[in-house]
Amino acid sequence: MSGIGISRRGLLAGASALGTTAALSACGAKTGSGTSSNAGAQADTSGDTVKVGLLNSLSGTMAISEVTVHNALLLAVKEINAAGGVLGKKLKPISQDGASDWPTFAEKAEALITDDKVVATFGCWTSASRKAVKPVFERYKSLLFYPVQYEGLEQSPYIFYIGATTNQQIVPALDYLKKQGLTRLYLVGSDYVFPRTANKIIKAYAEAQGMKVVGEDYAPLGSTEFGTIVNKVKDAGADAVFNTLNGDSNVAFFKEYKSAGLTAKSLPVLSVSIAEEEVKSIGTQYLEGQLTAWNYYETTPGAANTEFVAAYQAAYGKDKPTSDPMEAAYISVYLWKEMVEKAGSFDVAKVKKAADGIELDAPEGKVTVDGATQHVYKTARIGKIGSDGLIEEVWNSGKPIAPDPYLKGYDWAAGLS
Amino acid sequence: MTVILNQSFTGISIGAVLLLIALGLTLTFGQMGVINMAHGEFIMAGAYTTYVLQKSISGAGASLLVALPVAFLVAGAMGALLEWLLIRRLYTRPLDTLLVTWGVSLMLQQLARDIFGAPNVQTAAPDLLTGNISVGGITFANNRLFILGLALLCVLGLTLILRLTPLGRRIRAVVQNRDLAEVSGIATERVDRTTFFIGSGLAGVAGVALTLVGPIGPTMGTNYIVDAFLVVVVGGVAQLKGSVITAFALGVLQSVLEYSTTVSVAKVVVLVAIVAFLQWRPQGLYTLRTRSLA
């Protein structure tokens, strides 16, 4: 355990650059050697309350999205406590700020597990942050519930993926565009793992399905200069833009898009990371008529959703929208509760074993946990952004789609990894 | 051809943003030799001023027009305060100004986070500035034209002040030879503070302009501060026209490279070009001949 000692001291020393380097190198060393033998021993379940970790970016470029997820998690914890807790124990949420910075996520995840001794952690948004914390959760054999759609091609025994994988969001979105006759795509994304991997999948799909990718551009996360990218999009002769920008780069992108005279009619943009909260802060005047792909919208019909929206707005304000990642975060706590109760224990190994087949009448419709992949069966929904800032569903898959993180069910995806 | 023209306009608009941000630095770093790392936070102060005004004044257009002078005063006052509290004690120690103002910039970022919350916010642009004008296949975005006009207006105003007013003459005298200016009866301390007020105020104006392009957040200034220093250094310390030429040249270079490669590659190539240029001409594009012994 000497590696941990070094990294923690380095971090405590306060020299952040130095500290993160030490933490990162220590991570690598520790996962490689696989020293941990005290499986799940970190979790403290001895008292009347058990601690759950909430790990989101409460500051920085991702805070625009992640604060809402944090709110939804708190709501679920509060509701579960009001209903008597889990196995008779109340939940005590411990919030940590990942600050839109991946090494910070790893550091805070470790603090949650070793200092706070949480029984499970909920959170992360960007794939970069998830990849940063993955070795930490694996090393300590602690559970992370990840609430955001992502690029797939990953499976960790200690992560439950409650958001969509690619075959539940991106593939249906491409199917939809193809059905509309929009076959010449321009790919715009933030420069990190999710957009790059997603675009690799899109290009493989396009090649197999007779679509054409006419351009591909990445902007640094947090970038606000989109003049050239929009010019390139305009000149490329595309039918549609597939947008995998994350965070508030979207604000600058859509401002530039409108300034350049491009509209949802002339050149639609399909986004996979803009939900109701982002629509509201970007401004509907920039987004009206543009398309999104998710599994849940505030407008999704059903009693469970009516209740969820009402509860959320009662807690955080009448004008606060709900969104897909928030819904996934909210149900992730409930899914964990069901798993724990089925297992009759907080023990990680037992909870994992109990996970398969857990069902929930979620706001998005029925979801079922697939124990083999630790993903969830979800319904795909394409939506159109309205002038009121809400997203109206224009298509759905009709029934929950089985998760296929490695796209094994698609011939065209054979070469991807 | 239209591609080249469109890209040139994009480059010029990037240059205009750079210029607006670098203008204040040209005064405080170029003329006074103070490495003010808090300049980015004065930009942020200008942007948040716009945000606050838009919440209290109805009408995006009216609030934007009010925001320009108010942001100038707010950021200017912050700059003058910083000069009075800390920087005047450090005029002979430029590296210390770097550390001190960096500390101040971190404090200001945290202050903004406490006041306005950590998530970034946005302002709505007036309808007039969300559209575009198309001339012969070239698209001129109205918000970019507005920023370009604003930048040129600021350059013009600053030039006139430095060239024609008694204050401008005093500033130039202090820059050229502080000691001689002092014995000639110029209150150099007051000139310093006024210069800092104007330089920081211009950062505030830049902040207003940036609300038309992207989101407003506690760290928005840090995104631009390095580019702004590059413009001033390459332009030649203490020379307005150097900054103007450099800002537009870097903007056009960046946009042309972005078009033919990618955003990240363009950034790298621009940086390499700057390093190469400074090897060849360490003093920058233009230099000021002074009678100072230093």
Automatic annotation (TrEMBL), chain A:
Record InterPro entries: ABC_urea-bd_UrtA (IPR017777), Peripla_BP_I (IPR028082), TAT_signal (IPR006311)
SUPFAM superfamilies for the chain: Periplasmic binding protein-like I (SSF53822)
Keyword vocabulary terms for this entry: Signal
Coiled-coil positions: none
A family per Pfam: Peripla_BP_5
Domain of life, source organism: Bacteria
Keyword presence, Transmembrane: no
PROSITE patterns with a match to the protein in the record: TAT
Keyword Signal among UniProt keywords: yes
Span of the signal peptide: 1-25
NCBIfam families per the UniProt record, alphabetical: urea_ABC_UrtA
Organism taxonomic ancestry: Bacteria, Bacillati, Actinomycetota, Actinomycetes, Kitasatosporales
Protein name: Urea ABC transporter substrate-binding protein
Gene name of the encoded protein: urtA
Automatic annotation (TrEMBL), chain B:
Annotated coiled-coil segments of the chain: none
Pfam family for this entry, one: BPD_transp_2
UniProt GO cellular component terms: plasma membrane
Membrane topology: Multi-pass membrane protein
Signal peptide: none
Subcellular locations according to the entry: Cell membrane
GO function terms (MF aspect): transmembrane transporter activity
Sequence intervals crossing the membrane: 12-37, 57-82, 145-162, 196-216, 228-252, 259-280
Main localization of the protein described in the UniProt heading: membrane
Gene Ontology biological process terms, A to Z: amino acid transport
Keywords recorded for this protein, A-Z: Amino-acid transport, Cell membrane, Membrane, Transmembrane, Transmembrane helix, Transport
Family named by the database record: Belongs to the binding-protein-dependent transport system permease family. LivHM subfamily.
Protein name: Urea ABC transporter permease subunit UrtB
Organism name: Streptomyces phaeolivaceus
